[in-house]
Amino acid sequence: MPTRLRSPPAIAAPVVYLLAGFFMFGLPVLTRSSYLIGYGADPQIFIWALAWWPHAILHGLDPINTHALYYPDGLDLAHGAMVPAAALLLAPVTAVLGPVGAYNVGMVLSPALAATFAFLLCRRLTRSFWASLVGGWLFGFSPYMLGQMAGHLHLTLVFLVPAIVHLALRGWAGELRGARLVIPLGVVLACQLYISAEVLVSTSLWGVVALAVAYGLGDGTDRARMLEFLPGLALACVLAGILCAPYLVEAFQPGAVPASHTRTDVVSADLLSYLLPSPLTRLGGLSFQRTTAKFTEGLFEGGAYVSIPVIVMAALGAYTGRRTLAVKVAVSTLIVIVVCSFGGHLHVGGASTIPMPWAALDRLPILGQLLPARFSDDVFLIVALLAASWLARARTPSIAAVLAALAIVFAWPALSTGPWKSPTGLPPLFATTAYRSYIKPHDVVAVLPIGSGSPSMLWQAVADFRFALVGGYALPPEAPNPYTDDPLYPQLTTEPSLRAGPAVSYFLAHHGVTLALMEPLAPTTPRWETLLERLGWHGAVHGGVLIMRHRVQ
User: Fold this and answer.
1) Which of 108, 140, 220, 460 has the fewest CB atoms within 10 Å, measured from its CB?
2) What Rg do the C-alpha atoms of the chain give, in angstroms?
3) Where do the domains of the chain lie?
4) Global pTM?
5) Would the pLDDT of 255 be above 70?
6) Quick check: 461 and 44 in contact, CB under 8 A?
């Protein structure tokens, strides 16, 4: 963005992003330990993960195959979104603030980290601080990020995506060769897998598309550069595979997560979602609710909104750089990503219409697990790069400044009504160490009902894994769940029929349950309590939790 303003030092950019992230999302929760950033059941998955990995390593446990969940069958954590790299990096924070505090810190840092690494990438391409500052903001504080900050830590920690692109560009340019390319790129790829395999797979897919486009559109010199770069890239992938071998071996065991093509149409971008703001944005978010409520991807996954100012800047960037290979590759890749984000069928205002190319991929074992609506993350990175490239060359600084400001305003979050602050719901029993008086070490606990409807993993994490847990909420719907073959399982996730007493008794005994916990005010609790009392269990409310044991124990 050409202006007469003197460019600040590069360190000013992350400071701006950190302050913005703190005041937007951190201040309302970091000052109150009883709140977290997010909404619903999903945050407890990552709170649990942040506690589990340091705990397992310090106690000499197998961190991937655990019996702390789904006892006694156990669970292969390579099939879940368990963010081991983030857990280890945040381990000192977890030790001081606990897993809820560490989760909040990770969420607050997510947009700032994403924006900072996108800033560095933009600055390499534009050499302009101000244009790069805007580009970093467009990526780090995008509507995609606003939606995923409702509780998906593995999808907000996307700062390594621009880092991967940055390293690849330096390798392409010949600035990094040999070990100077292979080692950092391999380590970054491995770290991305240990944060989110889903993000790594989608980023790798678009990387292959970009390389194919570059080879097809480039001249002889460009192709020669690619041939020099590809061996280093391949070795970096091999190094990443070696570093991730323990995880990958478990993930590809027989019975691993299959493709789930039915979800690609349920969680795919609507054509109008790129044009209409969602309720997560302050400006205009409530004006189109009748339409946006019909989008298949829902509120939190519907982060594809690219506002008019951003579209204008990106289009101008594409036009002014149309003769360069970099812009040709960026625009072509962007088109492919947008088309794939529509899933197997194009949805317009929630209505399914024509088949789309992704329908040919969503039945494959790995690609079939991707949710196309989440591809908007990569859309925003490319759009941010195009916008920054135009801002750096704009001939009318005043117009550039107005468009940049409007882009930020149009995507400003609806902070007063958004899902970025909710009570942890921790009862006094687990908000303090009072649980030690009622839960014995190595108790086997069933928090009823089991599954996503209970806070079981949150309670286990803050109790420092004092007890083993029957059930849990750590798996995607299509993952191998050791309990789903039990015909009683559907009732266990809600409330049982009073006639199911013998089956419930067998289930509890078979899984070694010694203690049943319930939220006293939950609508399912009266029936569970009545049924367990008929089966010889007794208990009382302590610290806001109904605790029941069998009389013969």
Assistant:
1) 220
2) 25
3) 12-38+83-410, 428-550
4) 0.94
5) no
6) yes
